[in-house]
Amino acid sequence: MDPHEIRSLDELEALFDTPGEAAIKKEVDHLVPVYRRLIEASPFYVMATQGAGGLDCSPRGDPAGFVKVIDDRHIALPERRGNNRVDSLRNLIEDPRVGLLFLIPGKGETLRVNGRARITTDPVLLEQTAMKGKPPQCVILIEIETVFFQCARALLRARLWDADSRALAEQTPTAGEMLAGVPASGIDGAAYDDGLDERQERTLY
């Protein structure tokens, strides 16, 4: 056993100061106008779900404004084509609880939304969230339970938006190299990378 493991809420809370007033008051159960502005400006979010098969956390992105705000308690998320694993959607069928983290390039603050989801193929919503004339496969409707912004400290520490940080990408493996690095995949990494940019652009929608 780890003698330093934290096993109780009392032990955990002893490590941290009491939350400040702003940290408490920024959380609401609906989209106030300033939070709506952040969602409408965001081209990217990460979705966390859970189901019988385990946890999933996956990215979603489109041009800013792709998330449709229906009212101050509901938003609609278009589900585009991807790798067809549909891990998040499988989880939502079993457990509707969902967590979302919205990011805006260049901005340190993020927006956190927690709520419950349901999946729909409502023709009106499909048409309203179409991109380049192509509707999404389905739409995820979120009923908001809590929403608040997250301070910029994590992104500042990561230097996420710094121009110098982009050089890190050149030091990491390509998609093909990652596939080839999985021993049982049997995938030719170089062949996979060949024309990858063109394939991705052609199959975005």
What is the gist of this entry?
28% of the residues lie in helices and 28% in strands. The protein has 205 residues and is of the alpha+beta class.
What does this structure look like?
The chain has 205 residues and is α+β, with helices and mostly antiparallel strands. It folds into 2 domains: 138 residues, Electron Transport, Fmn-binding Protein, Chain A (Pnp Oxidase, Chain A), CATH 2.30.110.10; 30 residues, no CATH class. It is 28% helix and 28% strand. It has a 7-stranded antiparallel sheet.
Class from secondary-structure proportions: alpha+beta
By CATH, the architecture of the largest domain is named Roll
H-E string? HHHEEEEHEEHEHHHH
Distance, first to last CA: 50 Å
CATH topology name of the largest domain = Pnp Oxidase, Chain A
Record field, number of beta strands: 7
Q: What percentage of the residues does DSSP assign to strands (E)?
A: 25-35%
Write the layout of secondary structure elements.
Layout: H1 9-13, H2 21-25, H3 33-41, E1 44-51, E2 54-61, E3 68-71, E4 74-79, H4 87-94, E5 97-103, E6 110-120, H5 123-128, E7 138-150, H6 153-158, H7 175-180, H8 189-193, H9 196-202
Antiparallel strand pairs: 1-2, 1-5, 3-4, 4-7, 5-6, 6-7
Q: What are the defining features of this structure?
A:
205 residues, alpha+beta, Pnp Oxidase, Chain A, 2 domains, 7-stranded antiparallel β-sheet, 9 helices, 7 strands
